[in-house]
Write a structure and sequence with these properties.
Elements: H1 13-26, H2 29-35, H3 41-47, H4 52-80, H5 83-102, H6 106-134, H7 137-151, H8 153-169, H9 172-192, H10 205-216, H11 219-249, H12 254-277, H13 283-307, H14 311-337, H15 344-369, H16 375-401
Keywords: Membrane, Transmembrane, Transmembrane helix, Transport
Transmembrane segments: 21-38, 58-77, 84-102, 108-125, 146-169, 175-194, 215-235, 255-278, 290-308, 314-337, 349-370, 376-396
GO molecular function, one term: sodium:proton antiporter activity
Amino acid sequence: MPFNLISMRQIVESNSKASTIIAFSLIPLSGLATDIYIPSLPDMATAFQVGSVSIQQTLILFLISYGVIQFFAGSVLDSFGRYRIGLISLFVFAISNLFIIHTRSLEMIYAMRIVQGASTAFIVVGKRAFFVDVFTGEKQKHYTSLLTIVWATAPITAPFLGGFLQTSFGWTSNFYLLGAYGAVMLVLELIYGGETLRYPVAFKGKKIVEVYKKLIGTFDFSLGILVLGICYSMVMVFGMSVPFIVEHKYHLSPVITGYCALLSGLAMFFGGIIGKMLKKGSIPVNASRANGLQVTLILLFMVSSSLFNQLPLMMVFVVLIHMMVGLIYNLFFTYCVTRFPKNAGMASGITSGGSYMVTSVVSTAVLAIIHVTGEATLAIGYLILGVLAALVLLSIRINAKSGQKKLAIQA
């Protein structure tokens, strides 16, 4: 059996509670690794004497690496187990931050961000699969529906903390914190962790390709991933633009950038809670209603931005728009992750990896087309993404009415 999983320490009742807490603690790692240094982007651009686009690429490269590796991480984890690969990934993640801290080469930072994206992918995919491995029935559904809510704690806390770290200690302090976080979680895993995979799948290329074709070829699953990627692009476009709006246009401190990102994260968090609480209506119907409200808010944002240039007013619209993102994201993420329980690792990897790949491509395209410098250009970017999401949701609803599998599962 691959990696001798039978003899490896397993998750049992005595360590299941601690392991569950560790799993939930690692779910926000991807958001923490991207959002904590958002307030530092202008300072990093100055330190490396490059423009905003060059520094924004450190985020994009992480997203691409994170997305691509997640896409394939599931099959590796379903064959070779979660535990040892998770330990190696945590070690690599922790050490990579030291390279970023001590280099003065932007190319080295690019390389390390790619490494961090890959290691984070294995960690997060394994921890999402943990809840499918260990729990069943309503408990499984309850925990998996909490994943996006727990994940949203990173966008809430990371930029807020990063703003204070930037102001007090400079941009490298963010990566010191990331390295320490990775090291602490590695120690906790060594003490309390264990293997959760009970039935390893033989790592056979042809069979794996067939499973991938089956999952990706499932219409509702693939379009659900597309919705996730487009929706989260709104958050990423805002996140990569807000430090330059706050610090260049309004000449305010990175702490204010942190507060703005904090409000964005809170909006995602509460939107996810609303999505989890919805009991009536199918997923496409509820998501379409949320998207309709979202597009209406974006249009109002466009009108207000032509009349007023005020940061507080901009943040009111950002909060409301991102709340709808959180709602839609929770609905489709829960559905996609639990869609194929016999291939939990693959489904988790394809769901998150595919959505991040969509996010990296779409958000890069939007920022290439529109140079976001203020409220008006941000609103245009939102509108493009809102309309794209509406078109995909419409396709899902048309397909459901045509007699194919309906998304009947509730949030």
